Amino acid sequence: MAREIRGQKELREQVQDAGLCTGCGACVHLCPYQTFYHDRTIVLNPCDIQAGRCYAFCPRTPVDLEETRGLFSREAELTPEIGPVRAFRIVRAADARLREQAQHGGTVSALLSLALSEGLIDTAIVAEGRERFLHSGTAVREPGEVWKRGGSRFIVSPTVAEFNRAAADGGAGKIGVVATPCQVFALARMRLKPKLDSGRNPIDRLGLVIGLFCGFALSWSKLTALLERSVGLDAIRGMDIPPGEGVLEVYLEGGKRTFPMEEIRDCMREACQYCIDTTAEYADISVGSARLGGDWEETRTWNQVVVRSEAGAALLDLAKERGILEFRDVPAGNLDMLKAAAAEKKRAALKNLAEKSGRAEDLIYLDARDRVLAALMSEEGK
Amino acid sequence: MTALLNAGDGSRPLLMGNEAIARGALEAGMNLAAGYPGTPSSEILENLAKVAEARNLYVEWSTNEKVAMEVAAAASFAGLRSLCVMKQNGVNVASDFLLHLAGSGTRGGMVLVTCDDPGALSSVNEGESRHFARMIELPLLEPGDFQEAKDMTAWAFALSEELGTLVMLRSVTRMSHASGIVRLGKLPDRLPRAEFKSDGPMLDPDDGPVLSMPVAHKHGLQQGRIKKAREIFEASPFNTYEGPDRPELLVITSSACSLYSREAVHALGLGDRVGILKMGTTWPLPPNLLKTHLSRADRILVVEEVLPFLEDNVKVIAAEAAGEVGIKTFFGKSDGTIPAMGELSPDLVMEALCRILDVPLPAADLQYGKMAREAASLKAPQRGLAFCPGCPHRASYWNIRTALKLDDREGFVCGDIGCYTLDVFPGGAGTLKTLHSMGSGTGVASGFGKLGPFGLDRPILAVCGDSTFFHAAMPALVNAIHHRSNITVIVLDNSGTAMTGFQSHPGLCVNAMGQEMPDVDIAKICAAMGAKVEIRDPFDLAETQSTINRLMEDAEGVKVLILKQKCALSPEKRGIRQYNVHVDEALCIGEDCGCNRLCTRIFRCPALVWDKEKRRARVDEVLCAGCGVCAQICPQSAIRKEVA
């Protein structure tokens, strides 16, 4: 069922002002009227286009998930919890130096560098850290540039905005994007090629999407206020959320400071409460930190990878062939563990959406009658 | 050669009202003139400055109206004749000194010319300066035509010396800015010597110190001067009557309204039924003269701008003299016959006359009306109030608005008086959320900045111009700094008092007479006060905008950002283009880009034109001032600039 495409005004009312904006950047750099500042989308000037790209590409405007599923997955591979699964692997970058620079196994950097050096794409969009824990998307063309930009982020970066900007450069080369689930979903909505009043859809330039697993992102203003109060921003050298420990570790000049997850959850971006995607279901290939059990220092050097599309499968095969990635056996129950965690996030989001609207059948941007969502909700009811 | 230097050989040049006032001052041998620019008063001092050398004058644009009056008063205390000039609300600024000056009295003839702006054509208020004459007890004159503008000004100096007090002369926009034939008098040929006598007995009016105390004594003297003025005014030739001996209706009027009244009576052919008493001395009113004329008719219409000053004061005399002159029926502002505010016109007076005398209002000439409307819609370009092409304020506001949007905490800007006030009109962007008197933006912001504990937690900005900074913003800035009010003050420094015609101010290295003067540095003043000061070029959009954001995010105390860029119409810049700017039609994607004409719809420089046929933006080569700012805002880089 097609949803009506509206304009900037409705986008602002239904998404930004409603606390649904993920900060993915899909509505930015399409026109001069929207921009990004800190971790927020900003409307600079009013636009009077009735059916705008900003609204059409937003991952939080009303959507028919059946349409997006139809685009990307073969029915047999579809799982309700984590979307299409062609293959599930535990891998890491073969080059130890790359793992060193990256947050975990360095798989994303390795795959992206490979895609660039093999000419599968000529530009890669990655997040880049800036001052005071802010990030921006940045376009790089050399594999070495990808290496420098490894590492997890806890604040959203407007990566899709940088894709929009890079795609408008007049070139013809394909662009690869490393993106969080909301950003991947925005790119999926571009791939649906919605009918628009004006403007080009940048999607033809998209060559590869590497999705990142994501639990939630933090609000920049809340997080920096907390850190400024507690340790001072200048003293911080890095951060991580080790799995299973339920804490945020902040690495300081001389030691580290641990914040309990309850305190960190207070800094969560509101929009993340309404997200049903943990594993970037519409990517070519999705990458997250491994859950191996046992020694964390060993576990943290590995990634778990979900292969979703033909392009994703081909890239992973190429990486194996070239010896760029190391593979190890997937421990028993690992995929089910991931599915269980993802299902939990989905159910929580559906509950939060129903609470926000005040009506069980009104899921704001989602359709309660969608077969996957309906199934998840009825399971919860049992 | 300017008519102001005409020897007075009986020639009758066409003079603007303000020129006539300046000529009157010259004919009276005035030596010092000071004022602060403000429409409709500015041309008086400008014209005097031009002849300063030839006529041995000292002329200055003072920091503000109060200082101007103090400077002019010093000349009077030293026995010279002096003139002080300002617009209506300038008298409010000067009024504290004015009150004390009335108490101390003056020596050399001193005249305050105030030019009021009924209808607020060039003001953000419709203030009335005449009430100060009554409130502060000063004689008030109102010329009724251009000849009188000159003659009354000259006479005002003699009157001031005869009474020993300052004399107010009030003009209005139509008197100051319209022109008429003026018969010139002779220019005196003397250079008086300034001498300040102050060592005599305390109460000696000529040799003692100049003080407004002891108050009981000095106030008594001032009331005595007003009493004497009332006697002099009984015989003043500037109060005239024209009309039948016993008219059906007596019109009492003054200033430009006497011209409207004459025209209305003439147009209606009511010369044998209506008499017009034109008052030139409107405070204190001469009661015997009024009684004589009130006796002529039972019905009285008072025609004046803006408030019912004459009306109320005439009613007091009519009430006191009711036994002699009989009971009168009054028409005017109180009963609604005359509009309570705004400018009057011959048409409005005609309507009033027809209603009172029950004569039909002549039908408007339909053909004329049609032609006028056609001419207005077809032949005159549609122009709203807007910033000029190349105006630094357009760029400054663009930066401020962008920074406020990015900041996203509902920050707002307190406005002030200058060209940048145009932002509140439809041609602007509505950035300013408060607008009052000069310097008030910073003062109001200082107050807003202390409302955090009460829940008003929004970034507070204020703007003020360079001349406004010196005029009245400095005390407000000191207040904000001393009280740790968290505000950002943006000084829109365009190097001149641009709104009123580039008069000099203390920030420039020149004075009203074109002589070199030390310039006073705004940045150094602010830094010395204790503000954090930054200076940027508003034409550098990215740098200016990020600076504003950084200052707004700094929660500690007062930040001052000086945005320095000369006015596009300044003498230094006028006609000189920094860039040749054009639109590359191949790159401009018009309405199709989703950018939807950012340049012509949002930025709206008058030199950026939307070509309806080509559906592309275009630069109007005649209008473009070559600032190059639009090249920075075009998302397609379709607006190209090359160094001219």
DSSP strand tally of chain B:
24
Helix content of chain B: 25-40%
Largest sheet of chain B: 7 strands, mixed
Structural class of chain B: alpha/beta
User: How would you describe the shape of chain B?
Assistant: globular
List the helices and strands and how they pair.
The complex is a heterodimer of chains A (382) and B (644).
Chain A: H1 8-16, E1 34-37, E2 40-43, H2 53-57, H3 65-72, E3 78-79, E4 83-84, E5 87-93, H4 96-101, H5 107-117, E6 123-129, E7 135-140, H6 143-147, H7 159-167, E8 175-179, H8 181-191, E9 206-212, H9 220-230, E10 236-240, E11 247-252, E12 255-260, H10 261-265, E13 285-289, H11 296-299, E14 303-307, H12 310-321, E15 325-328, H13 334-357, E16 362-363, E17 366-367, H14 371-381
Parallel strand pairs in A: 6-8, 8-9, 9-13
Antiparallel strand pairs in A: 1-2, 3-4, 5-14, 5-15, 6-7, 10-11, 11-12, 13-14, 16-17
Helix pairs in contact in A: 13-14
Chain B: E1 14-16, H1 17-27, E2 32-35, H2 42-50, E3 58-61, H3 65-77, E4 82-87, H4 88-104, E5 110-116, H5 130-136, E6 140-141, H6 146-163, E7 167-172, H7 173-177, E8 179-181, H8 215-234, E9 240-242, E10 249-253, H9 255-268, E11 274-278, E12 281-283, H10 287-294, E13 299-303, H11 309-320, H12 322-325, E14 329-331, H13 346-357, H14 366-379, H15 392-407, E15 412-414, E16 432-434, H16 440-448, E17 460-465, H17 466-482, E18 487-493, H18 522-529, E19 532-536, H19 541-553, E20 559-564, E21 579-583, H20 598-603, E22 608-611, E23 616-619, H21 629-633, E24 639-643
Parallel strand pairs in B: 2-3, 2-4, 4-5, 5-7, 6-7, 10-11, 10-13, 13-14, 15-16, 15-17, 17-18, 18-20, 19-20
Antiparallel strand pairs in B: 1-8, 6-12, 9-11, 21-24, 22-23
